[in-house]
Amino acid sequence: MDNMKTRDPVEQWGRFEVELNGPADGNPFVEVELLGVFRRGHRAVEVDGFYDGEGVYRLRFLPDMTGEWSWTTRSNRPALDGRSGTFRCVEPGEGNRGPVRVRNTFHFAYEDGTPYRPIGTTCYAWNHQGDAREEQTLATLAASPFNKLRMCLFPKHYEFSRNEPPRHAFATDQAGALDLTRFHPDYFRHLELRIGQLRDLGIEADLILFHPYDRWGYAQMPPDVDDRVLRYVVARLAAYRNVWWSFANEYDLLKAKSPADWDRFFRIVQARDPYQHLRSIHNCRGFYDHAKPWVTHCSIQRPELDRVAEWRRQYGKPVIVDECCYEGDIQHNWGNLTAKELVHRFWLGTTRGGYVGHGETYYNDEEVLWWSKGGVLRGGSPKRLAFLRAVLDDAPPEGLDPVEMGGGLRVAGRPGEYYLAYLGNTQPRWKVFPLPDDAAFRIDVIDTWEMTVTPVAGTHRGETRVDLPAKPHIAVRIRREA
Predict the structure, then answer these.
(1) Which pLDDT tens digit goes with each residue over 292-303?
(2) Is residue 407 part of a domain?
(3) Cβ contacts of residue 424 below 8 Å, gap of 6+?
(4) Which are the contacts of 39, defined by CB distance < 8 A and separation ≥ 6?
(5) Burial of 365 by CB count in 10 Å (0-12 exposed, 13-18 middle, 19+ buried)?
(6) Which residue spans within 76-143 are E strands per DSSP?
(7) Nearest to 51 by CA among 77, 86, 90, 71
(8) Does residue 366 share a domain with residue 280?
(9) How far apart are CA 476 and CA 482, in angstroms?
(10) Cβ-contact 318, 352 below 8 angstroms
């Protein structure tokens, strides 16, 4: 038995990797089994290994505790069995806050306790566009407010997204047919590169594992291949702290999959992911049952943002309306919202206790629409969403829950401490807020489109009239004076 000690320490919630040489004969993707067991004190964490081509096997691990860790391997091949080593895990570096978890039932926080408030966007096929376009997308994201990105594991065939991808997930024969028994490691190395770059930008990669928009056969793979894909993807990617598992985009349009298939997919990933990254599934028409125990949060496609509070009550989990239609100007009604309407929907969802996702579908002669291919953002909503994100960053860390104040007000907050009301498309000259009598509050009038915050003079308690500018898209923030 050999012992390998890494020279360089690994950050907590960083990626530790073991590279091993092993057999390349036959088909290692289906014939070779490799498991790593990582230990620190009384803890033992099992991690699936994977074949990375050319006789190279890898184990990846996401350490969640500082100190000395050891590892050993188990395999059905002698060259890979009984290998061992150690490494040292040190404190996380700047910007490394660990994976995102569900906190306070309806909200999120990083593993270190820092609140996480998703302001997400969708770029389904951005990672299948070639290096020049993908680097352009990353530069755009770096200057954006988005901290979550919905993206597809497999390429997408749909209107405005009909280009052939640079590479495929499986090896191909001379006729170009996919060999579903052999993965193409370079495909996954490229995906890992992009997920790592998103991580370094502070962006969660909400990875869509299956979708119906396909001309290559990914949507009609047999069950054993589906299952093998899930195990391979988890083995390769689970050690990236910014990965989320989205089991489908519009799962109910994948006619080759049954309800039992989706349950099985969730259970496979739940069992094989040692770190329990967030898990969701997205709908077209009918909802999957988000109350099932393997679902961590709701990922919903609906334009009715006032229903967020209802979905919270129904499922008892965080609600992200990942798709409420897109800002853009294409012919489809789901893709021609004004920027004002999209921002309006974000504020509606926020003040009902949920989170909302962005997308952009402005047509251009190159047919490079952000929602599918990435590139550059052209719309007016991103800077307003940056403003919303700043408002949320200044809100209570526990998250905003719906608060009943009467008068038809949409309000979220923490009773007695913080209230955020949104008046939507109405334009009153004043509103009366029934505040508690036992504390003093400061009040701000927020113009969500012009991105201004105007303090109301003085402090206030009890029933309080707040004068307003008599225009739409106004919010009122009420904070207890310390």
Answers:
(1) 999 999 999 999
(2) yes
(3) 344, 347, 348, 410, 472, 473
(4) 45, 69, 70, 71, 72
(5) exposed
(6) 84-90, 100-103, 107-110, 115-116, 120-122
(7) 77
(8) yes
(9) 19
(10) no
Cβ–Cβ under 8 Å, residues 296 and 317: yes
Q: What percent of the chain has pLDDT over 70?
A: 99
In the numeric block, the tokens 């770190």 are attached to 275
Terminal C-alpha separation, the chain: 62
In a domain, 95, yes or no: no
Residue recorded with tokens 């770029």 = 123
Q: Which domain holds residue 10?
A: 3-90
Residue 471 lies in a domain: yes
**51 and 109 part of one domain:** no
Q: What φ, ψ does residue 349 adopt, rounded to 5°? A: -60, -40
Q: In this predicted model, what pLDDT tens digit does every residue of 186-230 receive, in sequence order?
A: 999 999 999 999 999 999 999 999 999 999 999 999 999 999 999
Please say whether the beta carbons of 420 and 412 come within 8 A. Answer: yes
CATH code at 443? 2.60.40.3950
**Per-residue pLDDT tens over the stretch 12-26:** 999 999 999 999 999
Share of the chain above pLDDT 90, in %: 96
Q: Given 34, 65, 90, which residue is the final one in a domain?
A: 90
Residue 1 has pLDDT above 50, yes or no: no
Torsion sign over Cα 204, 205, 210, 212 = positive
Question: For residue 233, which of 208, 264, 250, 261 has the smallest C-alpha distance?
Answer: 208
Assigned token pair, 451: 């991105």
Helices (H), 358-463: 370-373, 381-393
pLDDT band at 364 (very low <50, low <70, confident <90, very high): very high
Q: Which of 46, 401, 104 is nearest to 231 (CA)?
A: 46
Q: How many CA atoms lie within 13 A of 147 on its CB side?
A: 20
- Section 457-468 average pLDDT: 97
Report DSSP state, residue 165: P
- Count of domains for the chain: 3
State the Rg of the chain over Cα.
24
Separation between Cα atoms, residue 305 and residue 315, nearest integer Å = 16
Listed in sequence order, the residues at least 6 apart from 46 whose beta carbon sits closer than 8 Å to its beta carbon are 35, 36, 37, 38, 274
Residue at a domain's end among 369, 393, 417: 393
Q: Quick check: 382 and 145 in contact, CB under 8 A?
A: yes
Q: Which is nearest to 217 in space by CA: 155, 164, 278, 272? A: 155
Asked whether the whole model's pTM tops 0.90, one would answer yes
Rounded CA separation 474/352 (Å):
16
In tens, the pLDDT along 34-47 reads 999 999 999 999 99
Q: Are residues 387 and 413 in the same domain?
A: no
212 and 157 Cβ atoms separated by less than 8 Å:
no
